[in-house]
Request: fold
Amino acid sequence: MKAIKLIEIKSELGCAQLGASMGSDAIKMAAHKSNSDFFAQHEIIKLPERNYLLAKKNQSPGHEKAKWLRYILENCQTACNTVADVLEDGHFPVVISADHSSAAGVIAGVKQAFPEQRIGIIWIDAHSDLHSPYTTHSGNMHGMPLGAALALDTEARDFIQQTPNDLPEQTKKQWQHLKELGGIAPKVLPKDLVFIGVRYFKPEHSALIRNLNVKLYTVEEIRKNKIEKIATAIYKKLEHCEKIYLSFDVDVLDCDVVSTGTGTPEPNGLFVEEVAELIQYFAQNSKLCCLEISEVSPVLDRQGNAMAEAAWHILNKAIMYRT
Reply:
């Protein structure tokens, strides 16, 4: 198996709430509590961040529909280059990120490393993250990484026949730059994207999933069928992809059962062992080339360090097949 190399991304400029920058340390604490030396065994590449900007009273986050995009673009460029370097060196990158906007850079890095190969994405998340600055309601960039990867602009609003957000030229250019990271846009085709556990929808989300024909496995479908059956079906769907990137946002977990320790918790989600078993199956696939875990926020956890402990348990199950 390829050696694991850890990439730590603490930037939380794209979040709805503060606290995710502490997520990677909380996961390390959970590993230590379980008597694991995993984080001592593997090199950790720590990427720079500009979270101090959040504390500057007079610092503008930029346009309200693309908050902190200027700096998130910088963060994603660094993530892109780092992931590409790790892959080109023949290693398996495990990315632990604060907010999910970083996934735009991580996916770009995978594509930059394998520009001629077809990339599949397994997105385990309560949210589809398909927005763009033209379609977002909140302006939080953690809701847009797949929008960037699929090179989306106004499509979501076009589908529902609503006017897209009006953006200044600078924001349009920055968004275009984010879409084109690594020199290729789009990075992935809608038919090579699979959602697991997505359950929070605005009209734009539903319209995109329906019109782009993106496959979604709901919590109910996961419960109704055997995990092995679901994993086999996903392998079949992505069989034409040479490489697969897997993203696990912890908000896919049921906040009422598991933990509230994430910025956008959602009820009626998956349980820890369900996600652990799914990722175990995916980790055994030789096409899996990168794993990202995102959005653990221990300051929001009403159950101590429960979300980080859940994330560590799931990560630990996955790495059994990568070491």
The CA atoms of residues 4 and 264 lie 29 Å apart. The domain at 4-319 is CATH 3.40.800.10 (Arginase; Chain A).
